[in-house]
Specification:
The complex is a heterodimer of chains A (114) and B (108).
Chain A: E1 5-7, E2 10-13, E3 19-24, E4 31-37, E5 43-50, E6 53-56, E7 65-68, E8 75-79, E9 88-95, E10 104-105, E11 109-113
Parallel strand pairs in A: 2-11
Antiparallel strand pairs in A: 1-3, 3-8, 4-5, 4-9, 5-6, 7-8, 9-10, 9-11
Chain B: E1 18-23, E2 32-38, E3 45-50, E4 55-56, E5 61-64, E6 70-75, E7 85-91, E8 106-107
Antiparallel strand pairs in B: 1-6, 2-3, 2-7, 4-5, 5-6, 7-8
The chains are: A mainly beta (114), B mainly beta (108).
């Protein structure tokens, strides 16, 4: 079974551009979670989605950030008009959603804003 | 979800067992204990989880006390490749799978 796939691994954007981060969950998983890790800081939850629905977006910044998980295709985390403070590692995780089932993480996308 | 307390750092000699403690004294009956590790800047790696009983897999063993207020992750033969930050997380299930909340972990 392939694990959680994230792409690109590295992304460089200039201030004001848009960043799109993609996440393909493990086969059979319909629950996706996005986390952000700023340099030298801990992992912070951003958003939890289940096919076509946002379940919990309590960690998502109110502006410029959005996430989707369409019926077909990968989950997308979109950051509009990026600023230097958005530079971080963004990790995606997936789960089957069954009781007690763990989350499995991808290796992340490292976003650098210049 | 219940809060967890872990020592900020621990040392272990190569080849010896690493025993990483975690306190979760406010855990409730439907909450699981999960252990993850993050090696350098890679994605968090799932290690093991449990509810009440001790668990073992190819990576590690999880010992949960009878009152469930604390647990220990055991890496039986630690190597340099086990150098990482280890996170103990407690998470409940309320009919839908919820997020994991990462603390500061133990740097081994």
């Amino acid at each position: 079974n392939a694990g959680v796939m994230q792409n690109p691994r590295h992304l460089v954007r200039r201030r004001g551009q848009e960043a799109r981060l993609r996440c393909s969950p493990m086969k059979g998983h319909s629950h996706v979670y996005w986390y952000r890790q700023l340099p030298e800081e801990g992992l912070k939850f951003m958003v939890y989605l289940q096919k076509e629905n946002i379940i919990d977006e309590s960690g998502m910044p109110k502006e410029r950030f959005s996430a989707e998980f369409p019926k077909e295709g990968p989950s997308i985390l979109r950051i509009q008009q990026v600023v230097r403070g958005d530079s971080a590692a963004y990790f995606c995780a997936s789960s089957s959603g069954q009781r007690g089932a763990p989350l499995h993480f991808g290796n992340g996308t490292r976003l650098t804003v210049t | 979800d219940a809060k967890t307390t872990q020592p900020p750092s621990m040392d272990c000699a190569e080849g010896r067992a690493a025993n990483l403690p975690c306190n979760h004294s406010t855990i409730s009956g439907n909450e699981y204990v999960y252990w993850y590790r993050q090696i350098h800047s890679q994605g968090p790696q799932y290690i093991i989880h449990g509810l009440k009983n001790n668990e073992t897999n190819e990576m590690a063993s999880l010992i949960i006390t009878e009152d469930r207020k604390s647990s220990t992750l055991i890496l039986p033969h630690a190597t340099l490749r086990d150098t990482a930050v280890y996170y103990c997380i407690v998470r409940g299930y309320t009919g839908t799978a919820s997020k994991l909340t990462f603390g500061t972990g133990t740097r081994l």
